[in-house]
Amino acid sequence: MLxxxxxxxxxxxxxxxxxxxxxxxxxxxxxxxxRTESTLLAAGTxxxxxxxxxxxxxxxxxxxxxxxxxxxxxxxxxxxxxxxGVAIWFxxxxxxxxxxxxxxxxxxxxxxxxxxxxxxxxxxxxxVPHQQLIxxxxxxxxxxxxxxxxxxxxxxxxxxxxxxxxxxxGVVVLFLLAAFAAMLIVEPTxxxxxxxxxxxxxxxxxxxxxxxxxxxxxxxxxxxxxxxxHLPHGIWTGAVMLAFTTKALHGDAADWGYQATGYFTGxxxxxxxxxxxxxxxxxxxGRIIVMNAFAAGLFTFAxxxxxxxxxxxxxxxxxxxxxxxxDVAQDSLLQDTVASGQFxxxxxxxxxxxxxxFMFAGLxxxxxxxxxxxRMIYVSGGVAYLLTGFYALSNKALRKSKxxxxxxxxx
Length: 411
Prior knowledge:
Layout (H helix, E strand, L loop, with lengths): L4 H32 L2 H28 L2 H22 L8 H29 L5 H29 L2 H20 L18 H14 L1 H13 L8 H10 L5 H24 L1 H6 L1 H20 L4 H29 L2 H29 L5 H21 L1 H4 L12
């Protein structure tokens, strides 16, 4: 797999764009929170990233299924490069942050990601053999979590050491490198994107994507489960976690960063572990997804009971490995069971529903944190996770799902 240069180019695209987006967003979030001392305004960075997904998710899925996924990746990286260039103009030399202007820039970056991510995920089964899907997803997830950990770890330091304008210049360079790497990918053409709806009108193609998702037992159940699960995910937004750190643990932004780094470190280890248990993941994919829903609830209760920053860091780390294994299982299961020509629409719809729920949940919990003890918010999140686990357990198609180890492409 690591000898597959086209897969490695895609891997680099994922790494460069993830680092660019997260580094930019983390530094902006910390800047807004420190200037305004408002959890709600800081949570606005999450809202403006999620809102475009609600509006454009299905449209993005249709276009990803109709056009070259490589060209979509290149176009979106160049668009993001220009948007950050505009951000450099917005940013004031004294380090001040015009909140509304930055919100608009973050929304534009999110629009590009709506097209970019489904195109990336749809390319993976085209570039690697079917038997290596779990390894390919595990390697990308592990690398992504390393980058995420670095973003949170150094983001707070960068905002203290450098003007936002200089940080934005570095982000521009990363997007430029990602676009260049995407140009080097050779996208397979033989038998690609069956059932993509190229001969349908745009409206019919959009409707057929929804119909396909409704009729696909595994994709439908997984989408419903993940949408519900993103309600309690709202307690893990940067703004709410920062409020928990300052109010319940009496820490600061650096302590919040340690927790995020602990979680991403656990995700890295879990992703690497998934590489070693690929055969087991293929046989028990559904059971892994169900068990992790229950584990999320129990771990959330434990995190809510943390009395010190370092106890919270430990529990944040414990979250990582099972979540990473579950993420690999979910992505690989979709790539294994969903038709290539429908993948863009299914994945984009899934992202739209998850992001919409996450956006409203993040806003709700950020607002609620001003009226309710912050620990109670995390206890309620734990209860919601357990309810999600019971839904997953009750769905036979999801509970019994597994990957086909023999089919070259089960779609």
